Amino acid sequence: MELQIKGNKIFAPLKDAWLVNKPEEEVRQRYICRLVDNYQYNLDQMTQEIKVNNSQRGTGAARADIVVWRSQEDKDAQKSPIIVVECKAENVTIREADYFQGYNYAAWAGADFFVTTNLKETRIFQVVKGEMPKRLQEIVDIPDAATANSDKKIKELLKKTKAFTRDEFSKLLFKCHNIIRNNDKLSPEAAFDEISKILFIKIRYERENSANQIFSLETFKRDKESYNSYKPQGGEDFYQFLFEQTKQQFEKDHLFEPNERINIRENSFESIVKELEIYNLSTTSDDVKGIAFEEFLGKTFRGELGQFFTPRTIVDFMVSILDPQEGELICDPCCGSGGFLIRAFEYVREHIESDIESEKENIKRHFYTDAYNKMSKAQQAKVDAKVSDAFNKINHELDMGNEDGRLRRLSFDCIYGTDANPRMARTAKMNMIMHGDGHGGVHHHDGLLNVNGIWENRFDVIFTNPPFGSRIEKGMKITEADRFTDVVKIEAYKQRYGKEYEEALRQVNDNVGKTILSLFDTGIMSGLTEVLFVERCIRLLRPGGRLGIVLPEGVLNNTKLQKVREYFESRAKILLIVSIPQDVFIASGATVKPSLLFFRKFTEEEQLQYDTVKTDAQNEAMAQYQTEIDELNQGLSLRGKKAMSKEDKKKIKERLKEIENLIREYSLRTIKERCDYEIPVAEVEKAGISTTGQPIENELIPLAAEFLKYRQENEMWSNIIKKMAYTISDDGTLSRTYVIG
Fold first, then answer.
1. Looking at the structure, do residues 130 and 176 belong to the same domain, yes or no?
2. What is the strand order of the sheet 330-332 is part of?
3. pTM score, whole prediction
4. 29 near 22, Cβ under 8 Å?
5. Structural domains counted in the chain
6. Are 154 and 237 within one domain?
7. DSSP assignment, residue 526?
8. What pLDDT, in 10s, does the model give residues 95-104?
């Protein structure tokens, strides 16, 4: 059955009418097409939008989007239907409450199955007669028209529960990995690259074809046969041709090099396509795809590349501690596989979606009053139409195609990252696409240098796990190769960011030939990468911005790094220190005992106060020793007969050095007394992951809850950012304004 759309109208065959083509309406009509084409139901077995008089709903009207009967006769006789379908706009994430809402509809109607769909994600549940279950039972599929009239087959289908989860997807990815290892003898990292290529071929194919069309072995062979019928002699193999198309589709995302090819045999390619055909990646939820892909990453990159993967329990904890908000700019200059950026994106997205749902409840309260219940059916229908229109307008906030939408701004304007390893930068982009988006601000680039929108004093929140133990050598210089030279992108960035971007480019352009260490104050104290990245992160933060960073414990207690610690404390307040077990990173191949440090960069006022205290303390200390210093220096300047012996000069120099240390100690002690504040320190023994990567007890979860209460009571920071406020006029017009809050 063909979907009919003309301008802003869409044809609804069950109503025999052209309706306004709103996002939810299009999902409903596409699923009706699916019921006809894939399950062979007739239109006369279905009805669109049946009103539900369910006392559990509260005020307002509720409608089941699609109801399906076993036959037209059952429908005409008003018998119980077999399927109830609840539709959501494609850009609306289906929440747990939606599943129970759909279950309510289906239970009221006496159906056996209910479906929730936004086309991107479709889930099917069994309806158990009686009380509302605490946990819904997901099953593999709804019956087709022929099966619908067989009680025996219905019972068999209801018994087929669906373990179609991230675990299954993750296992499939490992199975594909083994196919390449056995057939093509590639390293784990190279095998991962090949699987990634096939996943994106599959994503492209299933996005461009109908929502029902999976990239299966059957479709591959069918299309290959068609391709070979017109392929020129010496033309590339079909699977390479598919990859070329995929590279073109994702060209702007820089996922693949222009000359890159698939580096496995065609029979290996076909075997992997066969394994993955159980999933339609255009309709599999981002949660299932993303988490499975992430688990696969973590296990694939153990050992040599384990440093690029931060366990999710740590990521979740750090993001919850710093609590990023809508509108805040977020960065990870050593993003690895993208774990921090993904979780931050999800965290803020969840808040936006929750806010949208709250606004919908406000809309219902606005319209569904006691007056509504006294209206005629015609009047109620008009109110229902206003509510539906308001819902569609507010859902538009979640549409990635809406350039002014809240989710689009989060994805395109607020998430930034770099990684110096090209495989990891690409993997981070892929990982973020699997999770829903936010990949556009990620680059293959040295995290110590500026690129795109990443420069000093810009970010509200930074999360990172920098490389440990390596050094930037004193002779390592900024070279011409470090310049960003993409003329088209530079012009685009200038248009986007203005003069700030041009100024940011000077960090590299004005320092070609100079050492990288010369860019940093701590460069004269230490060449350790973890030290330089702490300073880099503090520099990237705007005044008052927040930093969460994974560091080796040596940064906290190594006496050689005392001056480094003093420097950091002269630029930022320490919010929290958490010592975590070494086991956490062993699963990723690391052996260093880690700590999690959280900072808040000084505000301009705090920096001024600190600098004033420091200057005063130094002046006070100098005043105590100034006379002695002058006398000692005068002695060193004597020449001729009155000149001192080498031994006497040595003693003077030693005393001057001693005085210098005394002044420094006095200054530090005075600064500490006058700028003293409490630093919460915690140690956890179990952080949710064992040495083998298995889940265990996670003491970080209650710690995060405890810290939230502590930081709110102590007002450790305030999120003064823009938030969205919606207003509804009497005629149903929905408008929005930004407010500070």
1. no
2. 442-444, 415-419, 330-332, 459-464, 541-552, 594-601, 572-579, 681-683
3. 0.82
4. no
5. 3
6. no
7. -
8. 766 677 777 7
